[in-house]
Design brief:
The chain is built from 2 helices and 11 strands. By secondary structure, the chain is mainly beta. Strands 5-6-7-11-10-9-8 form a 7-stranded antiparallel sheet, covered by helices on one side. Strands 1-2-3-4 form a 4-stranded antiparallel sheet. The radius of gyration is 16 Å and the shape is globular.
């Protein structure tokens, strides 16, 4: 990996990796993702991005007060909310990375005979709830991109 000093790096000379930073979050992302104005955004949303890779996809990152609740609480809350709205929950787990419990699960929902997949990743740290949401008609084709953006190996 090389860094040209302009918040860009190149991995394996194929994928250009860029860096997003603001006062709430910093993360790497593949250059085929770009910011867009999310007209349906919630007030806690910090950034929304999309890609045309594969069948396309979107990413949203939000930060809100945790209300004194734990990562486990927010995982259960999100899963129950999604189930109540017709989603199927898959691959639900909590992992500990560098002392922080992080939930990571997938959901699938069908509307008008179109099925989409979502990946939900969230955690509580310093009284804040951090939540990342990816959605696509083909989430598997974005796995490498998601891992770059979230920082999972």
């Amino acid at each position: 990996m090389s860094d040209d000093g302009n918040k860009k790096c190149v991995v394996d000379s194929e994928i250009e990796i860029k860096r997003f930073e603001n006062d709430k979050i910093a993360f790497n992302y593949p250059s085929n993702w770009y910011e867009f104005e999310n007209k349906n955004k919630n007030p806690a949303e910090v950034i929304a991005m999309k890609t045309d890779k594969g069948k396309g996809g979107t990413f949203s990152f939000s930060v809100a007060n945790s209300g004194g609740k734990t990562t486990e609480y927010w995982k259960d809350f999100m899963e129950n909310f999604l189930k109540d709205n017709g989603a199927k929950i898959l691959d639900s787990k909590i992992r500990n990375i560098e002392g922080v419990n992080i939930f990571d699960f997938r959901s699938e929902i069908s509307k008008s005979n179109v099925s989409s997949s979502q990946r939900h990743i969230g955690f509580v740290k310093e009284k804040a709830f951090f939540y990342s949401f990816f959605t696509s008609l083909d989430l598997d084709s974005l796995k490498e991109d998601i891992n770059i953006m979230i920082g999972f190996k």
